[in-house]
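1st attempt posting a full record on here, be nice pls
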Amino acid sequence: MNVYLSTLPILMLLTTSFMVQAQQAPPNVVVLLYDNLAYGELGSYGGGALRGAETPRIDRLADQGLRLTNFNVEAQCTPSRSALMTGRFSIRSGTYKVPTAGAPDGLTLWEETLAEVLSTRGYATGMWGKWHLGSEASRFPTQQGFDEWYGVARTYDEVMWSASDEASGLTPAMGSRAGWDEGLTPVQYIYSSTRDNPPVKVKKLDLASKRTLDGELTDKATRFIKRNAEAGKPFFAYVAFSLPHMPTQPNPAFAGKTGNGSWADSLAEIDARAGQVLDAIKDAGVENNTLVILASDNGGEATYPWQGANGPWRGTYFTAMEASLRAPFILRWPGNVPAGKVSNEIIHITDLFTTLVHAAGAQVPNDRVIDGVDQMDFFTGKQAGSNREGFVAYVADRLSAVKWRNWKLHLIEQEQMFDPPIPLGLPRLHNLLTDLREEHNIAIENTWALPPMMALVGRFKASLQQHPPIASGTPDPYLPDRSANQ
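the predicted structure (as tokens):
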């Protein structure tokens, strides 16, 4: 008998098995999350040169994939990052506002993060940058599913403002000539940590270390990508950059690069750092099997001289205005997501959790409410529309607005973050296709739109009744009261 013929069925079986395994290989996931990058900063969103610095690498990324014009986040940094990590509106998780320094804060360990779920599928998980979901070591990223982390636990508002920094041009605050008083307010640190091991304080978070932080985050993330690509291991890389969060100061290598000031220099650095990560993915030979998301956690900065450019939208973050909720979003996955597509369909940041979990072949937790919906069929062009028609918008623990299709209903009036929130006796309705700046209340002539919007509110409030939210500052160990669901 011909030896070749006798072994042919076995060879065909092995080849078929290999092809099936290759087709089912889970994609690598890279999330580039910028901090308070406003809707109108990037060239692909009408900014770029108009803001003093072109953004060619990010604009090219947009051409290679999907760009959304109606990607929605939550009103503050902590809530948005919580929603991304858990797929749950932050009001459910007790993470609905930026925590005050010294107060208990963060996700309870009962929550299941995106990193934890992807780990069940054998992913290497790494994070670099701002966590903002737990100030204590027991709630750091490496206790929440990440294999490694380098970054800050809290925020960049705490960069020792009172200390002078000649390089940044910022001087000591009045009455603080001696610098930051560590006896009154503890210094924040940049940490390094690996899974389940005690974190290491690498250096103080100050004006100088913030300037160089994004370069460090990029270097560590690109080495992680290379290492895991060479090992043939799927990876989840979450790069939470510091820019352009105030104080908006570029790395010294970018200072003066544009000739248009620190903001433009920072925008040039934002683009360059994205390019470095994209180059690392390509150089590692995994570009075609890597799903890349570039987004922002909030609308633009609201404090002079670091105000962001929010494009056509009015208001600031820490409100339910469109300038707060709409953020840039670009998705590239070669061979899966059509290139050059632009869509105004509604997507919420919670949807990324569910979509990425399913893309990895993992299971969404079924023992809790998950608000995110799977958008992969929409992202890949298998269907024309989003699987989401709208959502409720909380600002801290205040239900402030509802978005539904192209309509927006305000329940609380607050345009700027420093304005007092004023409950409205009658809700204010806007058509966001004809009234981008939310200036004209057309509720009287469009009462037909109110029932479906208020029904959305009713369903959400009912879910909070059935599944009571976790109180802010709840300590571990935490377990939900299942009797409340009966």
